[in-house]
Amino acid sequence: MRKIRLWAVATCSALAVMASSAAQAETLADALISAYRSSNLLEQNRALLRATDEDVAVAVAALRPVVQFVAQSTYSFQRVHADATLVTPAGRSNVENLNSSVGLTASMTLYDFGRNALAVEAAKETVLATREALVQVEQNVLLDAVNAYVQVQLAQSIVNLRRNNLGLIDQELQAAQDRFDVGEVTRTDVSQAQAALAASRSDLTSAEGDLVVAREAYKAAVGHYPVDLAPRPAAPRTAATVEAARQVALRAHPQVRQAQRQVAAADLNVARAKAAMRPSISAEANVGLDDEGQESASVGLSLRHTLYAGGELSALYRQTLANRDAQKANLLQTGVNVAQNVGIAWSTVEVASAAIAAGDEEVRAARTAFEGVREEATLGARTTLDVLNAEQDLLNAQADRLTAEAQRYVGMYQVLASMGLLTVEHLNLGIPTYDPAAYYNAVKNAPATSSQGKRLDRVLKSIGRN
To answer: Where is the secretion signal located (predicted)?
Structure first.
């Protein structure tokens, strides 16, 4: 009974250690969350988006009056000839004046055929296009994290294979040495085993180097070195067929949506360039006070119409037409590229799946062959070289199988990214995400007062940028 109790205690302790280790293991979801939170690339593009948001505020400001405080001082000097009775010895008299004034000037465009309003709408479309670009960056960051996670596990598995292979070859060398000692084999068999052992050590060193490289790539993608990675979860669901995936991609992919917004902005810029050829009406008001206490005030309307500008306005209009054509062509080509990427990613998964199935057969056959050759070698029907070659074939088959599994797993996420769905929201990672509308809503009306400024400060603080 005492032995049974000791065995039970030992078993419980071992299970507790295993459970604790499993609880501390970093999952793929943990890695994706860390990559999303620590990505400098995402921070850069979020800042670029906020800068683009300010373009809307700049365009809105053009619809409002401009009020300026003006203070000026003018000094004038004049030398004049005096009357003969008043002539100075030099024959001349000097007149000097110093005039100063302060005032306020206000001006506002009343009507410009919609130029400024179109500028606001074009800026909004550019903001929406930049938001889609940010989604694409998010996809790239998450895909890099998935690839880094899988590559570390693959590299570690290859290292384990190489270590096992080194142990087996060491056993073969010892067996060859023992058979040589009793005269069953020649020195050639021992030398072959020694050469294989040296090659195995070199392969292990190379595999360990690949693991170091994979760990560095993981740190760059996720933000820290891997410590204990949990087994990979099931691959994400994508689409039933490649055509269904293409249809989703052409609707949802951020690059397609970005190109659509860019076309919309280009259309608005064409309308702006056309409106720039028409007149504009503005109002001006001035109040002032000079150094003698004289007050002044004026109000006026002005109509401005450019009759000739050296061909600049026509050139700008033609330029917007060309830009619009370029953006439309870019939209079409983006659709072609997105559809192509879906097909490539889908094909990668299918090829990897076929490689896995073939790899299973290859591993089974190679293991059977290795075990048979080793048994035959003990009976003298096979040489040491035959055993080493069979063992190498088994190692290669196992490594190829592991590589195919890794390629298929990453390929599933590549399909998801090619469809435009590799985002924190779609993966249901359960973390707060960056709200691109928060900063835009705070600045879209071009805030200038203290109360609006405080609100903007709160927005900046909430996104961690103040």
So the answer is: 1-25
